Amino acid sequence: MTDGPVGDGAGDPGRAGDPAGDPADGARPTRRAFLSLGSNLGDRRRLLVEAIGSLGPSVVAVSSVYETEPVGGPDQGRFLNVVVELATALPPRDLLAVCHRLESAAGRVRTERWGPRTLDVDIVWIDGVTVDEPDLQIPHPRMHERRFVLAPLADLAPELVPTEVYDRAHGTVDVVEPLPGWPGPT
Ligand code: GSY
């Protein structure tokens, strides 16, 4: 793929300008999906804003922004984390491709497994969808262990985050200033 806008290439999932939209308009149900975005390298805020902007009109809501203690991996800087709610008819694998394209657009190079990264984008949940394949599991298999996922997810979908599950999860999370253009949950 070239450097054009995310989702703006022939054969890519999604429409130009609407990468999480569905090329087969109307053929599949539109579902609520939640992506977890994290950054701890470079201009973290800018990277998150650009990634969310490039998801296009499928974005329904963005959580508060959390500065979070790194979970796993080597000694590294704190992350900024958000969760984004989408309304999308993309099949899970096409949505995964969108996530990978956002990471590439942020200049992510996959080096150390749990190491620092400009951008990480994970599918956390899609209403009514389960996938259990080696490279894709939905719901995300570690979501219930991670406060950096659960705290922003609870902003948008509290019914998916029971209090006792949140209490057992790991890591410190602090709400910080919202992203420009995204005031956070209302
Ligand atoms: O799995 C997402 C990348 N990641 C994160 C993250 O986004 N936030 C925090 N706080 N710790 C993390 N460890 C990894 S790996």
Characterization of this structure:
- The structure is a single chain.
- With 186 residues, the protein is of the alpha+beta class.
- The protein has helices spanning 44-54, 92-105, 147-156, 163-168; strands at residues 31-39, 59-62, 65-68, 79-88, 120-126, 131-133, 136-138, 173-176.
- Strand 6 (131-133) and strand 7 (136-138) form a beta hairpin.
- The chain binds 7-(2-hydroxyethyl)-8-mercaptoguanine.
- 7-(2-hydroxyethyl)-8-mercaptoguanine (GSY) is lined by residues 38, 68-73, 79, 81, 114, 120, 122, 148, 171.
- 7-(2-hydroxyethyl)-8-mercaptoguanine (GSY) binds next to strand 4 and strand 5.
Q: Could you give the topology of this structure?
A:
Layout: E1 31-39, H1 44-54, E2 59-62, E3 65-68, E4 79-88, H2 92-105, E5 120-126, E6 131-133, E7 136-138, H3 147-156, H4 163-168, E8 173-176
Antiparallel strand pairs: 1-4, 1-5, 2-4, 3-4, 3-8, 6-7
The structure holds 7-(2-hydroxyethyl)-8-mercaptoguanine (GSY).
